[in-house]
Amino acid sequence: MPAMEYVWAVVLGVVQGVTEFLPVSSSGHLAVAQEKLGMEGPRLLMTTALHAGTLGSIIALYRRDVWELVRGSAGALAPGPWGRGRGGSASEADRKGLATAFAILMATLVTAPIGLALEPHIEHLSRDLPSVGGFFLITGLLLLGTRFLAPGTRHVGYLIAIPIGIAQGLAVFPGISRSGATIVMALILGTHRDEAVRFSFLAALPVLAGAMVLEGGMEMADLAVRWPVYLIGGIAAFGAGCVSLGLLIRITHRRRLHLFAPYLVLLGLALILS
Fold it and tell me: Residue 55: which residues within 8 A CB-CB, separation 6 or more?
């Protein structure tokens, strides 16, 4: 296989890993690259590999939360001694894990129908750069608004998870950042900054996993020949995702999300006026 295929796999992996987590919209940047640079979107298998890489980034950085989520849910629901406190009742950690799992489920049940309903219109919008610019502008203004939000103290329950799920579903529009939309929605609802980031990416796990399943209609012959390229792309997405996700956690904790706003507003205006 040509060496350039590996180079492009690394480039796509880094772009995916960075823009998936930083609140700048990976789909919007891909749409601009396709139209302005003549780049073709990644193949189905490459898209699956990139999603696997970013999924791995979330699991790696939030491994304790993911483990507590799985263990707590099993401990609260399953009979027997697994995770049970004294007297056979569920422990506080079990109940907390089950509550988080239920909130993620509620967010996903809201996200899925919105995303599926909007999906037929996305390809057309991705080719209309002024529309993409408008969505970039919306994301920029949302991030700018976080500058004026008072610090929150709430944790995410199922009532807060529902509007976060709506925001996640609307992020299918190219230029609307999934991480930006969900974190901003959580902050507006009074969620603690660290909790907002944590839930945003835990809620992304079923979304990314679902995307991988939907994209899983892969040609096994192509996979058998080109698997090293897809592996390199996934590893690059994983590495870039770990770095950018860690950076976003620190930026949100320090109330600096608005620093992304000038870039997105200027990019959005440039596309609208182009």
Answer: 205, 208, 209, 212
Residue 91: give the domain boundaries.
3-273
Instruction: Report CA-CA distances (Å) from 13 to 50, 143, 158, 235.
Output: 6, 25, 33, 7
Report the distance separating Cα 12 and Cα 24, nearest Å.
16
pLDDT category, 78, cuts 50, 70, 90? low
Q: Whole-angstrom Cα distance, residue 17 to residue 220?
A: 25
Q: Give pLDDT, residue 218.
A: 52
The values of phi and psi at residue 90, to 5°, are: -65, 140
243 touches 22 (CB < 8 A): no
Q: How many residues does the chain have?
A: 274
DSSP secondary structure string for all residues of 63-87: HHHHHHHHHHHHHHHSSSSTTB-GG
Q: Give pLDDT tens digits for 150-163.
A: 889 998 988 999 99
Q: Which helix (H) or strand (E) holds 115?
A: helix 92-126
Which residues sit opposite 191 in a β-bridge?
Answer: 154
Specify the number of domains making up the chain. 1
Query: Whole-prediction pTM value?
Result: 0.86
